[in-house]
């Protein structure tokens, strides 16, 4: 789903009664569930990821209360599996079996990063925000490779046990945009 404007720039994903914890940031031990598509709500496992992408979009889910933390759009996560040999040293150190995760919220004006396309400035596929065409390279800590975004996407450490993915710590870096849409 591409957007041309910053939709829903408030931190609320939807109005109404949200269960406690649903707008809290991802926490250590959280599980991950698909945030869109046919499998929305289903647990994401390592088997759901193909080496080389595309990324999956996910929400964190509290394993104790089963609350999906979807009440803040800032909680949406991109999960991708890449060949570890393609990752830079820092990114490889954080990856689990080549799997890495980032905030899905663009650091420019806070649009969702929706595309996985060939970069405008290279021959590799990158995360792309369609609002103003910023591109982020997941192999290099989601650093900005094109466009107006001022900084990389926040990274989310993951853990992998028996094929199950979970959150291993807090977001590293600031989540969300710095400019008005
Ligand atoms: S909000 Fe992503 S490039 Fe502007």
General description of the model:
This protein is mostly beta strands. It has a domain at about 30-105 and about 150-165: Rieske Iron-sulfur Protein (3-layer Sandwich), CATH 2.102.10.10. The chain has one helix and eleven strands. The chain has one helix at about 90-95, and strands at about 30-35, 55-60, 75-80, 100-105, 115-120, 125-130, 135, 145, 155, 160, 165. The strands form three sheets. It has a five-stranded antiparallel β-sheet with strand order 1-2-3-4-9, with no helix packed on it. Strands 5-6-7-8 form a four-stranded antiparallel β-sheet, with no helix packed on it. A two-stranded antiparallel ribbon has the order 10-11. A hairpin with a 6-residue loop joins β5 and β6. The longest helix is centred in the middle third of the chain and has 6 residues, at about 90-95. It is globular and about 45 Å long. The chain starts with about 30 loop residues before the first strand and ends in a 14-residue tail after the last strand. The model is unreliable at about 1-5 and about 10-15 (pLDDT under 50). FE2/S2 (inorganic) cluster binds next to loops. Keywords: 2Fe-2S, Disulfide bond, Iron, Iron-sulfur, Metal-binding. This is Rieske iron-sulfur protein. Pfam families: Rieske.
